[in-house]
Design goal:
Layout (H helix, E strand, L loop, with lengths): L2 H14 L1 E7 L5 E6 L2 H4 L2 H17 L6 E5 L3 H14 L5 E5 L12 E2 L7 E9 L3 H12 L3 E10 L4 H7 L4 E6 H5 L1
Helix pairs in contact: 1-3, 3-4
């Protein structure tokens, strides 16, 4: 992982995505800080650095996925940034999106994009807290006949999600740990 890109990502997250205060997390737990990665993951600078770092992290882990993606909305910009970066540094990795619910019209697919049965994927997340969103995406991928090589997160809140996913048999790589934002 490029030290310069890593430092840039930490600075972007700290400036635009990390807040102190009183918050209730999606899990229902209270927290004195909140990481809303979307202002970073959806910014031009964030997309650029996340694409490069995410692609390098996937390759450093030894994963060779055909696709990257996860549960909409948080995973979408992360997956697309990595897919775009892979065009500049082949082999190309395409993106996909897992819907939270299947639509009752059109193709009625839960997974959108070039996903197909038998494909190997890396599930991505903007922030891992409990691992619940990643597990929902993994369940959808398995249900559609895909194979999950591992999970990549932009931020690991270090609240047990990494351990939950690892215990379920999925290696996890995080680009940034919460401790790097709270220092």
């Amino acid at each position: 992982m490029s030290a310069e890109d890593h430092a840039a990502l930490v600075a972007l997250l700290h400036a635009h995505s990390f807040r102190r205060g009183h918050f209730t997390l999606a899990s229902g737990r209270p927290s004195s800080y909140y990481v809303d990665a979307r202002p970073t993951t959806m910014s031009a600078n964030g997309l650029s650095v996340i694409g490069r770092l995410g692609l390098q992290a996937i390759r450093d882990a030894g994963w060779a996925p055909a696709l990257v993606g996860g549960l909409t909305l948080g995973a979408d910009p992360v997956a697309y940034a990595i897919a775009a970066a892979s065009v500049r540094e082949p082999p190309v990795i395409d993106g996909f999106t897992v819907r939270k619910e299947v639509k009752d019209h059109g193709t009625a697919r839960r997974i959108e994009g070039p996903f197909r049965a038998g494909v190997s994927v890396v599930v991505v997340e903007d922030v891992i807290t409990t691992g619940g969103s990643a597990l929902r995406a993994i369940e959808a991928v398995h249900g559609a006949g895909g194979q999950v090589l591992g999970v990549l997160a932009v931020v690991d809140r270090e609240e047990g999600g990494h351990e939950t996913l690892t215990a379920a048999g999925y290696p996890v790589v995080a680009l940034v740990r919460l401790a790097e934002l709270t220092d």
